[in-house]
Amino acid sequence: xxxxxxxxxxxxxxxxxxxxxxxxxxxxxxxxxxxxxxxxxxxxxxxxxxxxxxxxxxxxxxxxxxxxxxxxxxxxxxxxxxxxxxxx
Length: 88
What we know:
This protein is of the alpha+beta class. It has three helices and five strands, in the order βββββααα. Helices cover 30% and strands 25% of the residues. The strands form two sheets. The chain has a three-stranded antiparallel β-sheet. Helix 1 (54-63) runs antiparallel to helix 3.
């Protein structure tokens, strides 16, 4: 029992579901103001997690949700990059 690790949970900003961190994609606004996909989840800046699901990414693009959460304009190309990375 002493060796059990807790799985870190994060909330998807679109669906508001709590999921294991590995099932989500982190988008980060760096201190310089650029918006990137953070594969390591260690880049500094304001982050937002989104489910790795094409329908969720499409909804985020339609509602411009990442722009609201990161408080900066998110380019449409970022959503296209996200869609390419997701397999579903």
